[in-house]
Amino acid sequence: MVEKLTELGVSRFVPLITQRSVVDPRESKLEKLRQTVISACKQSHRDWLMEIEEPLRLTEWLNRKDHPNQWFGSLQAPLVAQRALNDSQPIVSANSHMPVEYSSLAILIGPEGGWTSEEESQLMTSGARPVRLGQFVLRTETAAMALTTLALNEFSL
Question: Running DSSP on this structure, what letter comes out for residue 53?
Fold first, then answer.
């Protein structure tokens, strides 16, 4: 996942620790991810490295003030394509009633077990916008790539 996100131009990757997290990235794993970033940058001719941060609990992430615009994958949100077709609006603004211009965007992807209802509530309270890509439950890696690509397309980030 880190390789593909680097190739897509993501600037920062922060592993989140949630109630249903099953992976606990240790320092050795984070170092391996950093090496993957270097290889992906070389392959894609990218001249800056995606930053890999230490893991944070979701509550720690939400208390930070450096990410005012946030999306999170949610099965509770209306389907993106369906809303866009019905409203004849850009996909994301139809889905989430968001402004159509961002200079940066944080995309939060839930763990393999999905967000708990409490976590989704915390995300909504913090101002994060739910985005649903389809009727199927996506793997974490697939959701990350899909939401990143959607953001790149919608906002030319």
Answer: P
